[in-house]
Design a protein that fits this description.
Length: 293
């Protein structure tokens, strides 16, 4: 069984998506408190679906920015447009088109650069639409003083706070307000929750939850893919999840409920099972094409 030190060491290392390469050196000079870092990220990135609330209409060309997977690519795009330091907030129309995954991955990268263990979690937020659990990503970082993993939603800035009115501390999101994908899968399979309430736009159900579960497993292995990247054990909207695959997903859900206790098994499964490991090519379901990772 892996030790706490080994686990934290793994989540202090940058992965292919979080690594900002030549831009990463500037992370170390940023503030070292999570609240300030969340505010900095908010000043750089603009959620594509909430852009109109900021008075911004994204062109088709700008919308393509959300398909850039790595921090290295994304920061190059941002800084080519505006070379000012990262702690200088951009006007809304100058920010990089993004979503919750991008916001989370940038915060994770900054924390790791500062020596803090952090990881992205894929699941569902219960605070965007009453009675529903919206497709969402948040950052989970190791609170050294309290010796626990703490969830942070860096997406919700002051404007969005007024839109969604969360009734909790966004720097310490309760586990019943953000439900990791595996817990959503388990509870829906048990009949405790309705899978039709989990998803986004017109996409809901166990098939959608299965996709987020596989993405969460990848993220727990430091490979944070786009919310619409499809591979391996994920189900398609019109696909019946047969018992063997359902049992496999049950196992994944149980493992991701307590990733630290199951760290070695999660790492071994990811590295050796083609249903989980991100391949060289994945299907971008938004652009309807295969893409190199």
């Amino acid at each position: 069984m892996a030790t706490t030190e080994q686990i934290l060491g793994f989540y202090q290392k940058q992965g292919a998506m979080t690594d900002a390469r030549e831009h990463g050196e500037s992370f170390r000079s940023l503030p070292h408190d999570v609240a300030s870092l969340a505010a900095i990220v908010q000043g750089l990135l603009l959620h594509e679906h909430i852009a109109p609330a900021y008075g911004v209409t994204l062109t088709d060309e700008r919308r393509r920015e959300v398909h850039l997977r790595s921090n290295a690519q994304r920061l190059s795009c941002l800084l080519d447009r505006d070379a000012r330091p990262l702690d200088v907030a951009r006007r809304a129309e100058e920010r990089l088109a993004s979503n919750c995954r991008h916001i989370t991955v940038l915060l994770v990268a900054v924390l790791r650069a500062q020596g803090v263990a952090a990881r992205a979690r894929c699941g569902f937020g219960a605070y965007f639409e009453p009675g529903k659990y919206g497709d969402h990503w948040v950052c989970e970082y190791w609170n050294t003083d309290e010796r626990r993993w703490q969830l942070v939603d860096a997406q919700i800035d002051e404007l969005q706070h007024g839109l969604f009115k969360p009734d909790f501390d966004l720097l310490d999101v309760p586990r019943d307000r953000f439900v990791v994908a595996g817990d959503a899968w388990t509870r829906c399979r048990a009949g405790d929750m309705d899978p039709a309430k989990f998803g986004i736009l017109d996409m809901q159900g166990l098939w959608f939850i299965s996709g987020n579960l596989v993405r969460d497993v990848a993220a727990l292995n430091n490979v944070e893919m786009l919310p619409w990247d499809v591979w391996g054990a994920m189900a398609s909207p019109d696909e019946v999840i047969e018992p063997p695959r359902a049992a496999f997903l049950d196992r994944l859900a149980a493992l991701t409920h307590d990733p630290d206790a199951n760290f070695a098994e999660l790492r071994d499964l990811y590295e050796n099972d083609d249903r989980l490991r991100v391949p060289a090519m994945v299907f971008n379901a938004v652009l309807n094409r295969q893409e190199a990772v």
